[in-house]
Design a protein that fits this description.
Helices cover about 45% and strands about 30% of the residues. Helix 1 runs parallel beside helix 2. The radius of gyration is 12 Å and the shape is globular. The model has no long low-confidence stretch (mean pLDDT about 95).
Length: about 90
């Protein structure tokens, strides 16, 4: 399992950096990538797009993506958008 610790804002200004960090974890041939969201302070649609992109990339090759330890800010966005229906949120 690869663990990625996300922190700060997941938004338009950090989307490429978030994608790059997730891509590094995806590149390591492991069954699962887990994103720890405990230090995330804000999430917008760009941040969601980066998370969904990681999930899609892993699913395409039969691997698993999940998010755990969500901060209250991240949890709120997940609840409002229904992201938990598309990504395993623990």
């Amino acid at each position: 399992m690869q663990r990625v610790i996300l922190s700060g804002d997941l938004d338009y200004s950090t989307e490429s950096q978030t994608r790059a960090v997730l891509a590094e974890a995806i590149a390591i041939d492991d069954d699962e990538v887990v994103a720890d969201g405990s230090a995330v302070t804000f999430v917008d649609s760009s941040g969601l797009r980066a998370l969904l992109g990681a999930q899609a990339a892993l699913a395409a090759v039969g691997r698993h993506f999940s998010i755990e330890n969500t901060s209250s800010a991240m949890r709120r966005v997940i609840e409002i958008t229904g992201l938990a229906d598309l990504i395993d949120v623990r």
